[in-house]
Every structure is written in structure tokens, then in C-alpha cells.
Amino acid sequence: MFKVIGPLSIALSIVASNPTVAGDAAAGDKRYHESCHACHGPAGKGVSSYPKISGNPIEYTREKLMAYRSGQKIGPNSGLMIMMAKPLTDEEIENLSAYLKDAKYQK
Amino acid sequence: MKHVIKKSLIASMASALVLGGSAVMAAGMDVPMIKVTPVLEGLDKPWDMNVRADGTMFFTEKCKGLSMRSPDGKVTNIYGMKGSSGYSSSGADLFCEGQAGMMGVAADRNFDQNRRLYVASTSNKYHGSGCKSNFERCDGNIVMRLTLSEDLKSVADRTDIVTDIQYKPFESNQPFGGPGAHNGGRLRVGPGGYLWIAGGDRHRGICPQDPKLLCGKVLRVDTDGNAHPDNNPPAGFDKRIYTYGHRNVQGIDFRPSDGKAFTAEHGPWHSDEITALVNGGNAGWDPQEMTAGRGACPDKYCGYEPDQMDGKDPAVRASYMPMSDTRFADLMHPTWNNNGWSQGTSSAAFLKGKNWGIYEGRLATGVLGIGFGGTPIGQRIDMVGITPDGLGINGITRMPLGFSKRFRGLVLAPDSSLYVAVDEGEIYRVTATSMQ
């Protein structure tokens, strides 16, 4: 059993920390609409008092989401973001980061 | 644009289908044809509008300023905020932060003669020695009376008629805890030409029940900012106060049948509310710590307790930190509480005119959509039928727009169309056509 889980854990940690493993932007788009769209608006453009979150490097978005998921406070809406980031998996963070990098609001 | 038009067509078709069914099944029921047309897009946080009989529309953008759209579609930037560019003139004291900025706009009832607009905004002009912490007075919200030039393209005169509505200057340990929180900001001119100003509690526990602070209140004043002579707040209260005990009112309008004022108000993780206002009444919000069985709270504000950073059954929250606390003898019981959910009710406007068919007289209520802790996001405009006594509802229908957005500002135009501002940056015109 340990022989199986050990390599799997290592592989997952590599996926989570290795920026060369590309996220799935389409899956990120879907996840964005489930949890993020209501506040940050379409394509992460930022609405009301919620900031724009699109157009950033993948590394930036990944780092912020992981920080929130760990409970770290960054800015005045941390309470909300920590709550929203808690359930995100590593894969979902990669997908969201990939989606938001190039997301653009088009009317 | 094509996307929007396509959606509006779909909405119209859907409405037509409903009509077709109703014509067969319920003769005499006038379900109107509802159609949506984009008016402006690419705006920056549009917040409120006022529409004139000729189609001229004044509108605010929270972090930019006041503008005017002429009937021919041309936009003129009239009065900007600090840092704005392209405006005829600007107020260097006007700023935006978080939920605060340039917000409500209303026109004088004699606008066609005096060209007066009333505009609510955040300002640093009257801070005085306050605003050094979140636990002292900080007068940072004002109402301006602007007299426009004859061509309506610039401000000829600005007079600040209310200068002492409190503002939250610093971050606190709350969800949405940034400066500028719970800033209210809707303005409407009501019966008799008096100005109604809707406020928020600015995340300060003592605000809503305090007799002198104007945060967490609805004010009724004349066009110089003086109290309406018939305001009837409790003894010792500021006479400008019409009602108190509010959390964050962003919707207010007056029922066409009797002129009664109704508010729409955000709830605290639970219980968005519509309330029929009673002169001098208490909306029942009291987020002070060490009060009503509650202990100490983060930054002396219990408004999101218990466990303010975690999802929790809204009913549990409501029992601990009620939106309308029944311990108050002067409580104004809510008309509607969104089934106990908080999804972010914002602006509200009564639907006037026979063109609205069976929806005539209903209160259109915009919902921004906030989906935390398992609450459905719920972005929509509800058309809420209110009982004659104002204490209950007799029906809710979702307005068939064909899309969902953060519905921030609603106002009825003189031609009985509904203008709708969304946080995403657009203003729409919603028309209803009676089928009888």
C-alpha cells in the first residue's frame, strides 16, 4: 500500500508546485462560474468592490489562491476569499490560474 | 452587443410564450411582453440613474462621477471625482473606496425649471478631526445639490446640503471588511418633493440604534437638507431621521397607490429584507457587542456572527444576530425576507403604468447575487407583489430578462420603462407592453 501511495503523493506535490504542468483553462472557466463569477464578474474583470483578477501570470494567481486556501490573510476581503478557496483542489487552482491568465470580458 | 440583443429577443420570446399560454388558460390575465434593450455599455461601476421625460438620463459611476446621456445617445461627463478626467469640472474632495463613492442621484421635482440634481458621494471635506479610527465619528458621506447649466452639460453651482453621514475609514476584521463598507447611498425624491437618503451601518456596532449618528438611518429632508417638519423619531434623535435600525439600505421607492416608502436592504449572511417604513420606526438591526445576549465581537461589530468567516445555516445566524430584532417595541416588521437568505438585495423601484399588466404596482427588486455558505447566488430582478398593509407579499415573479448580472440600480422612467444598471458596466432599458 505504501509503495503505491508514496509515489502518488510525490507526483501530486510535483503537479501542485511545478509551473510547467499546464492547467485546463476550459475546466477553469467552468469552475470560475461556479464560485467566482458572482463577485468578480465575467472573465475576472472585477466589479463593484471586488478587484480585477484576470490578466495575471499563472504563478501569481496560483500563489494567491494557495495562500488563501491555507488561511493566510491578504487584504480586506480575506475572510471571503479564505472561505471560497478552502474547498479548491490543486488541480482546480491550476485550472483557474490558466483560465484567468487570458480571460477577457467581451460584449 | 449582439450577445445582449440575442438574449433580449429570447427574453421577449419567452414572455410571448407565457402570454400565449395564459391567453388560453386564464382569459383576462394581462401578462406583458417584456423586452430588454442595452442603453450604455463599457461603463465603470454604474450605480444609479435619473431619467427625464425626453429620455435624457443622468447616471453615476461610483469611481468616476456624474454624467448625462442625451436623447441622441451622446454622453457628457458633467462632474467628476478626484482623479477623474474628461469631466466638465470635478470635486477634489470626492473619492471612492470599497463599496463607497459617488452613488445615488435624484432630480428635483421642479428640475425642468431649476435644473437641480441631488447626488450622494463620499467626501473628505468634512472629516474635521475625526476619521482617525473606526471607533469615532467620521463624517465622510455627503449629499450635494447641483444646479446644472442650461445645456445640462456642466455644474453651475454645488451646495452640500447634508455633510455628516458617517463613513468607515479603515479595514476591520469582518467579511467585506474594507474601508467604505455598508455605505448605503440611494437617494430618491418622494412625496411633496422631499429628499430621502438611505444609509448603511458602516460596520460600526453602535450606528443603527444611536440617536445622533446618521449611519444606519433613512433620512427625510427638504432640498436644503433640513428635517421634514413631520419626521417623528424618538426623543433625543436627530430630527432628520425618518427611520433607524438599518443595516445597509440601497433601495428605496414609494408605492404609487399611497406614497408609502419601502426599502430594500442587504442581510448579514441571512435575511435580505424589504420593509414598509413607518415614520420614526425601528428596522431592528443592532449589531453592538455585549447586547441582546451576545458577548464581545471582532472590532465591536457582531453583524456577521456567529462564526463570521465560516458557512453556517442562515436560520442559525438569524436566531443569534437577527436582522429585525423583535425585542424592539417600535420594530417595523419586514414585508419580505428572501426566504431567510442573503443574496444581496440592492435597488428597488415600483412598476407604474398599465403597460406592466399584472405586474403593475409590484416592487421590482434587484439582487446582486452572493453565494456563500451554500446559498444560491440568485442574481435576478424580482417583481414583488406587496399586500395593502405593507406587511407581507402576495406573489413574486422573476423578471424574464434572459440573463443574470449584478443588478445594482433600478429606476422607473417617466415613460414607465425600467432602467437597470449592472455592476458589470451596462445600463439597460426594460420595457413592458400590455397585451390588452
Secondary structure elements and their pairing?
The complex is a heterodimer of chains A (107) and B (436).
Chain A: H1 2-17, H2 25-35, H3 37-40, H4 58-69, H5 78-85, H6 90-102
Chain B: H1 2-25, E1 33-40, E2 46-51, E3 57-61, E4 65-69, E5 75-80, E6 89-90, E7 105-107, H2 111-114, E8 116-122, E9 139-148, E10 155-166, E11 187-189, E12 195-198, E13 218-221, E14 241-243, E15 249-254, E16 261-265, E17 273-276, H3 314-320, E18 345-350, E19 363-367, E20 380-386, E21 393-398, E22 407-412, E23 418-422, E24 426-433
Parallel strand pairs in B: 5-6
Antiparallel strand pairs in B: 1-24, 2-3, 3-4, 4-5, 7-8, 8-9, 9-10, 11-12, 12-13, 13-14, 15-16, 16-17, 18-19, 19-20, 20-21, 22-23, 23-24
Descriptive account of the structure:
- The complex is a heterodimer of chains A (107) and B (436).
- Chain A is mainly alpha-helical.
- Chain A has a single domain (2-102), classed as Cytochrome c-like domain (Cytochrome Bc1 Complex, Chain D, domain 2), CATH 1.10.760.
- Helix content of chain A is 60%, strand content 0%.
- Chain A has 6 helices and no strands.
- In chain A, helix 2 packs across helix 6 (90-102) and helix 4 (58-69) runs antiparallel to helix 6.
- The longest helix of chain A has 16 residues, at 2-17.
- The N and C termini of chain A lie far apart (53 Å).
- The model of chain B is unreliable at 1-25 (pLDDT under 50).
- By secondary structure, chain B is mainly beta.
- Chain B has helices spanning 2-25, 111-114, 314-320, and strands at 33-40, 46-51, 57-61, 65-69, 75-80, 89-90, 105-107, 116-122, 139-148, 155-166, 187-189, 195-198, 218-221, 241-243, 249-254, 261-265, 273-276, 345-350, 363-367, 380-386, 393-398, 407-412, 418-422, 426-433.
- Chain B has a 5-stranded mixed sheet, with no helix packed on it.
- Chain B starts with a helix and ends with a strand.
- Chain B has one domain (38-351, 361-396): Neuraminidase (6 Propeller), CATH 2.120.10.
- Chain A binds chain B through residues 35, 38-39, 41-42, 45, 47-49, 75-77, 79-80, 82-84, 105, 107, and chain B through 1, 3-4, 41-42, 45, 62, 98-99, 171, 173-180, 308-311, 368-373, 377, 379, 406, 408, 423-426.
